[in-house]
Records
---
Amino acid sequence: MSYCEQILERFNSALEHDKVRFAPPWMVSWAYQNKRDRRGLKYSAENPQDFYSFDGPQDLVRWFNFQADSAKPDYFPEDVMAPLVELSRTCDERILRQHGLAFDTGKYSEHVARYNAQDFLLQNFYPVPSRYAIQQVLDFGAGYGRQANLWLQKRPDVAYVGMDAIPLSYCLQHLYYSSLSRPLTDYVISPSGFAIEGAGLYHLPTWRTDLLATSSFDLVICIQVLQELSPRLLEQMLAVFQRVLKPGGALYIRDHEHWGAGHHRNVARMLSRLGFVLEFKPHVQDRRDVHGIPRLWRKPDPEVQASQKPGRRHRLLGLYQDFLASLRVR
Ligand SMILES: C[S@@+](CC[C@H](N)C(=O)[O-])C[C@H]1O[C@@H](n2cnc3c(N)ncnc32)[C@H](O)[C@@H]1O
């Protein structure tokens, strides 16, 4: 049995073992792809075909093609983008070589590397006080694992956790993470010994969010994921993010906000109800200025909230002055 076949088998046996206690069917399916299947829609032959199987390293090239299907416009300074694009490309070319694969360099740089650079830039570009510095990252619905490329090169001191439940994505992530020359702790390899302890690369299926400690993450990443989940899983995961983020931690979402791929829930309203506050959302047009609108939501730190609340005297004087102003308008 090849190494890749073994990974798929490990994934399937972890799922079989956990399914009654942790993994109901709605948690381990991809609502959007299921909808496409029901409608008989197919991607072209060079893209992934079946998300519930794994063919081995060549699926990485299929996933690169998948990403190259859409333009990745942006308006970010080229002198900031170029070094990140280069870093991403060098790393992935090494990984492709390692697995005896090749991919068009121009196409890679324009689509995959540029996309990686955009997200890394946006996740890090908003300055934060040092107590909110990013030490632990959760990448939910990690695709082939692309976010780990720049994060681990630029910030080798972080604990980086990839999470997914779809066999093709999970196995590709395992392959990609194992190629990043960093120690990898993967739940499906050793389910009973899984623990997140210090810097490194960790990999966990969606159904084991119980292994993520409360208030332990500084950043949760959800790129082109939330809109593709079922309403039930969406609700479940937003509550998990609220639990596992530290006060002051950030939730980075980037997608086609009101696409309706898997549900028609209003994610912004759900996040507000959970107490998140929107810190950053650029005034740009989806698919024209950027591919997917980036947003940064923050789980408020009660100390900061208390410090920003106006005092009673200030509030009353404000109300009084507003009242006087309204009389003047009439
Ligand atoms: C369009 S891809 C985006 C991948 C990645 N975030 C990126 O930006 O390249 C959607 C991702 O959501 C994941 N996903 C779908 N259903 C999921 C589920 N039930 N639990 C976790 N991840 C899921 C897929 O496996 C895939 O990795």
Note: The chain has a mean pLDDT of 96.
---
Amino acid sequence: MSNFRINFETGEQVIYSAKRAARPKDFLEKDTVDNLEYKKECPFCVGNEESTPPTIYKVGEPWIMRVVENKYPAVTMQEDQDIKGIHYVVVESNKHNCNIDKFNVEDLERLLKLYIKVSSDIYKNPDMQYVQIFKNYKREAGASLEHPHSQIIGVSFIPNNILKELDVSRDYYYGKESCIYCDEIEKELNINKRVVIENEHFVVLCPYASLYQYQTQILPKRHISSLFSLTEVEIKGLAHILKDLFERYRRNLGDIAYNMYFHCIEKEVKEYHLHIDICPRTNIHAGFEISTGAIINSVYPEDATEVLRG
Ligand SMILES: [Zn+2]
Ligand SMILES: [Zn+2]
């Protein structure tokens, strides 16, 4: 297996160094999130709604999920700023200890529909060029609060990582007249070395040049660039895949920290393909990675696939 790989979609360089690998059982740590349904000092818990900005969207009565503006926003719509933006927090559950890996399929479907509704409303603002949906789980992944939550940030520019993916996929498309991601899905399903799970509508891969240990990428089998193109059946299919995948992470690796993010654009194009990445934060990108931009990963994606298939 090649120990040096380049991510075709982003150009990122990855060195695999299996000798440094921690075996999966090294991660199997116990839950470190307090196992309480309610915590008095938590601003997202039921009864503490006054400690957050007002609810803008909610699901259920009085609520099982709600969306508020971030109390400490990274970006705002203030007129005098070069970059404008909208920063929301999605409180995913009314229970402090119910992270989305414990959700049932219906809850995951509700959450996905909430993401879609909020993103679509952000794009109605003509200044908004890009909407990022993401989740930081646990402190090592950047979360400052334990209560299950994700974030949605709309910004008045297209960030570099998206521009880079758009550039590469456009070049590929004009060379081959096909989508780089569609081709990758077909190839991966054929060789079947990095496919963790699939259903009728989605496939989960450990990407060929994964930057993070046990990183996975969820891709719709149908060519879609925008979250707004997902049909009702596909949303259900995605909820099933997320449930299965989160259970696999917990079963095989324990309660690990991770970032999950959606890469998609507002409107359909032939060359860009929606994907959702889950990046466990079990390895730290340190001096070498920061200085060179090349990443050292001690778990080959083929080995990660084996573990997550378990
Ligand atoms: Zn809470
Ligand atoms: Zn495609």
Note: Residues 39, 42, 44-45, 96, 147 surround zinc ion (ligand 1) (CB under 6 Å).
